[in-house]
């Protein structure tokens, strides 16, 4: 991958960077690194597999994984791309065992959990495509609840697909302007991540034209929105809670200045928690205030900024929102109904714990994270938890996303597919294994990981992999 398309640097951007990097040698290193392609990196999804087991699984593939210092489950990957399958088409990716995520974007979640080791409720204010939401869910081990918000309608679907693939059950999705939450959900969250929309100066290694529309005037407009977002997030945080503010940009207007504004606004209620000891080497990018300001040349990564704040006291609430949320279309199932569903699910190898509860909407049964229930009726959710089943006179039709999140690969009805069979499964075709199959519902597995749920029909496995996920093109065993 060559950079024949040279990176576009607006002259005003270069003069701003020269002020920020007054040492000419360091400035030259910044320019040189910005013109180099970005190293690929991935994060192991520990909801599905331990780091140790993952490394053993991919060892034969010679992926040359190098640990990322600030994320124990993160690795840079350098493999020979000449004749290799795209990472997104590997069996391990399709099964949700890892997430392709830029290394520096793993930093904010590490900072969040160092400040709030066991949060019950977390909000990710700008969540799509889901790299940080899935990282948060893994750190929470699917316990508690995450409110994952995404303002852009087109990206909500991608967010849901990533949550589904990674087997995440503790998340509720909303689709709003993030500025509503301070009024709608005051003092509700133990921890909040605001990975703010920004001018993207840090992503030029991924996109040579990232700065085509760059101007200091446009940065000032973006910073105004960021101030409104951080103010709203700060209201939604409970006293004692942790707020991490991050961007993938480099200028101080969108970073240090936004925080200076918040600190001046609530001097009695907010303190900065320094991050210079977050990981070995953090001191190289720590600012005087204790923020991390990562230029691409320091760790050979994207540019990034991370700050962690603690809310030390309550603040006056915002005016109550004027809108009506309406009653959610779900009703909780009785204890007896929940037990009946859980018993039927257990027979099919699907299990969940008391941190999740069952709700019904017409013929659908949904599994909600219990910690989200207090928020029902306060904001409108676009999707809560996961769809577990549809009810029929004869029983239940278990859903694909429930199997990915809840299935036990060691269940009596689990069927292990060969690579060739698993490929057929991902292509949406029926499978004709030449061996005896358990009758009824099957948990479909590959590499001892659940990849779906299906029924035996005679001697074949009837494929019900969701049609919108079906893959064509080259896959892992071809």
Describe the structure in your own words.
The protein has helices at residues 11-20, 24-34, 51-58, 91-94, 107-115, 131-139, 153-165, 181-184, 216-236, 256-265, 296-299, 335-347, 400-406, 419-426; strands at 40-44, 65-68, 71-77, 98-100, 121-124, 145-149, 171-174, 189-195, 237-247, 270-272, 292-294, 304-311, 331-332, 356-361, 364-369, 383-384, 386-392, 395-398, 414-416, 441-446, 449-457, 460-462. By secondary structure, it is of the alpha+beta class. It has three domains: 1-317, Vaccinia Virus protein VP39 (Rossmann fold); 331-404, Nuclear Transport Factor 2, Chain: A; 407-469, Nuclear Transport Factor 2, Chain: A (Roll). Strands 5, 6, 7, 8, 9, 10, 11, 12 and 16 form a nine-stranded mixed β-sheet that branches. Helix 9 crosses helix 10 (256-265). The radius of gyration is 24 Å and the shape is globular.
């Amino acid at each position: 991958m060559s950079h024949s398309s040279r990176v576009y640097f607006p002259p005003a951007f270069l003069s701003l960077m020269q002020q920020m990097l007054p040492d000419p040698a360091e400035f030259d290193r910044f320019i040189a690194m910005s013109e180099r392609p970005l190293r690929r990196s991935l994060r192991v999804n520990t909801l599905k597999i331990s780091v140790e087991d993952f490394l053993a699984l991919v060892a034969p593939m010679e992926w040359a994984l190098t640990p990322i210092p600030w994320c124990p489950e993160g690795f840079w990957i350098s493999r020979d791309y000449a004749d290799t399958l795209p990472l997104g088409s590997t069996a391990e990716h399709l099964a949700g065992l890892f997430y392709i995520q830029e290394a520096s974007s793993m930093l904010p979640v590490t900072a969040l959990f160092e400040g709030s080791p066991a949060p019950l409720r977390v909000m990710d204010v700008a969540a799509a495509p889901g790299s940080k939401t899935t990282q948060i869910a893994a750190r929470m081990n699917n316990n508690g609840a995450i409110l994952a918000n995404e303002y852009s309608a087109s990206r909500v679907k991608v967010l849901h697909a990533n949550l589904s693939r990674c087997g995440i059950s503790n998340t509720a999705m909303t689709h709003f302007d993030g500025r509503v939450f301070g009024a709608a959900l005051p003092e509700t969250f133990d921890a909040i991540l605001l990975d703010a929309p920004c001018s993207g100066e840090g992503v030029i290694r991924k996109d040579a034209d990232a700065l085509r529309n760059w101007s200091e005037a446009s940065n000032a407009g973006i910073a105004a929105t960021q101030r409104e977002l951080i103010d709203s997030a700060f209201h939604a945080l409970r006293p004692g809670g942790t707020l991490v503010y991050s961007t993938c940009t480099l200028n101080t207007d969108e970073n240090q200045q936004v925080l200076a504004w918040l600190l001046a606004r609530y001097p009695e209620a907010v303190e900065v928690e320094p991050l210079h000891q977050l990981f070995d080497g953090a001191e190289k990018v720590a600012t005087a205030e204790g923020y991390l300001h990562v230029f691409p040349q320091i760790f050979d990564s994207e540019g990034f900024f991370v700050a962690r704040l603690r809310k030390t006291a309550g603040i006056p609430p915002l005016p109550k929102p004027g809108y009506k949320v309406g009653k959610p279309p779900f009703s909780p199932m009785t204890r007896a109904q929940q037990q009946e569903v859980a018993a039927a699910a257990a027979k099919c190898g699907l299990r969940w714990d008391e941190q999740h509860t069952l709700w019904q909407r017409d013929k659908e049964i949904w599994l909600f994270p219990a910690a989200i229930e207090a928020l029902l009726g306060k904001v409108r959710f676009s999707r809560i938890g996961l769809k577990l089943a549809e009810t029929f006179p004869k029983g239940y039709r278990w859903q694909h996303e429930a199997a990915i999140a809840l299935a036990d690969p060691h269940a009596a009805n689990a069927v292990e597919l060969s690579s060739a069979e698993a490929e057929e499964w991902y292509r949406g075709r029926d499978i004709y294994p030449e061996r005896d199959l358990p009758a009824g519902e099957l948990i479909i597995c590959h590499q001892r990981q659940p990849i779906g749920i299906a029924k035996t029909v005679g001697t074949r496995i009837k494929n019900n992999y969701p049609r919108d996920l079906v893959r064509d093109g080259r896959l892992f065993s071809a």
